[in-house]
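Case study.
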Amino acid sequence: MAHLRNTKESYGIISQALHWFVAVLVLTQLGLGLYAANLPVSLARLQWLSRHKSLGLTILALMILRLAWRSMNQAPTLPDSMPHWERRAATTTHWLLYVLLILAPFAGWLHASAAGLSANWFGFFQVPDLVSRNPELSDWFKQAHRICVALLALLLAGHIGAALRHAFALRDGVLYRMLPWKPWRTT
Amino acid sequence: MLRVIILLAASAPLVASAEECYSVDSSSGSVSFEVQQAGSPFRGKFRQFGGEVCLSQDRATRIDVWLDPASVQSGTPEIDAALKEKEFFAVDQFPRVAYTSKSVDVRGSTQLVHGTLQVKGKRHDVDVPFEVSRKGGTPIVSGTLKLNRLDYGLGTGEWSNTKWLGGEVSVELKAALSAK
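After joint prediction, the assembly is written out as follows.
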């Protein structure tokens, strides 16, 4: 049965919805950012980077919501079949993902602010700048943004790889905790 | 006695209209601009400019100023480079932006300068509200103007899209004048 809050066995639909929504946005954002960053100065670059900023701010807002919800909910327990180090690795990865999903958009926002290229959220409202214009600081934040994103991509690869291993190799039900339906449980 | 009075009467208007011309120098002023990019203000400045401003009792009588569009500085080198290309200032072909006054209307503390702005080979009449103040005897002039960048071909091709790059550009000038 669907439940709003997390239980010992699985994540509730709020956590699941936030997880999958952020997952889709983050994958879109990675592609968009990589594409736009390699464009020369052009209208297309301006358009795609503007959307990238809006999307990044959306991810940041959703991550803050996720952390707030997470703080009010326990995470489902991992199966006893998992070795101790794997559980430690899973928990550490999850927290690092949370941290980087906050830091990456935050560094991007700082970069845009310092570059004097403020964001306007999908054309709806002007987003305030976090710092005043400073080209040196802007370069620094750009590097920080790139490093966060590179680490994030690495961790995501590990996270997705581990989820698939649990689903198809170990078949221990760990992936089901984040799915609203249980496609393979009966087989 | 009569001759003295006539002489004084004749010279009075001369004294009142004594015009003094000053030079405008990049080191003691600023020319900045603002335009909307993707719905947010984007600011930059021009580092090289100069010219001449003539005042008579702190009223502008003649303004003849220029700026070097290649000295544009926005804080992002790639953007500065793009602004020098043919889609924007085409600095190789048009190395100067110039403004020359034709007449000046005085309205209280503000003076409205009527003049011609020439950018990228295109000339348009532009009115600039202008102010003159003094700081330790040095005249300080300031003015603002709004222009439509498309009137001057600033942003051709894809850049003529004003939804993403605003059409209106506001320019702010301020300079402490130095005696010639």
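Observations recorded in class. The first strand of chain A starts at residue 120 and ends at 121. Chain A touches chain B at residues 40-44, 46-47, 50, 115-120, 123, 126-127, 133, 135, 138 (CB under 8 Å). We will return to this complex in the next lecture.
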